[in-house]
Amino acid sequence: MVVALRAHPAGAPPEAPATRPVTTGALAAAAVAGSGAWVRDARAELVPVRLRAGYVRREVDPVLDRAARELDARGRGDARRMTARDVRDARFTVTRWRTGYPQADVDALLARVALALGD
């Protein structure tokens, strides 16, 4: 099954789950600096789940890697290759039996990435 990202009102990023914040103040500061490091750090904080719905990791990881590289490139003043729309249009397979990333955490992280990429 493939699902779309959850829509959030007025394009605002959702709040991260209270039990496991995806972005800290330091990560947000790095985002402003035009670095993809905060995306890599936030991905490292994603706790894989099993036997409950989650996005397939091998589908999520390349999108987050590409976004981190894009933010790094923008920090150096390089041309754009990935847009916020690319992030919003990302689709992932939901799994229960294989290890996946929690859907709410991935959705929250991707909403923040889309904001950082802007358009």
Overall SS class? alpha+beta
Q: Return the domain count.
A: 1
- Compute the separation of the termini in Å: 30 Å
Total number of helices: 5
Number of strands: 4
Name the beta content range: 5-15%
Average pLDDT rating: 79
Instruction: Enumerate the strands of the largest sheet in spatial order, edge to edge or round the barrel.
Output: 1-3-2-4
- Gyration radius, in Å: 14 Å
Poorly predicted tracts of residues = 1-31
Biggest beta-sheet profile: 4 strands, antiparallel
Oligomer: single chain
Envelope shape: elongated
Could you spell the SSE succession in H and E letters?
EHHEHHEEH
Q: Helix share of residues?
A: 40-55%
Question: What this model shows, in words?
Answer:
The structure is a single chain. The protein has about 120 residues and is an alpha+beta fold. It has one domain (about 25-115). The chain is built from five helices and four strands. It has helices spanning about 25-30, 35-45, 55-75, 85-90, 105-115, and strands at about 1-5, 55, 90-95, 100. It has a four-stranded antiparallel beta sheet with strand order 1-3-2-4. α2 (about 35-45) packs antiparallel against α3. The longest helix has 19 residues, at about 55-75. It is elongated, with a radius of gyration of 14 Å.
Secondary structure: elements and pairs:
Blueprint: E1 2-3, H1 25-32, H2 37-45, E2 54-56, H3 57-75, H4 84-88, E3 92-95, E4 100-102, H5 103-117
Antiparallel strand pairs: 1-3, 2-3, 2-4
Helix pairs in contact: 1-2, 2-3, 3-5
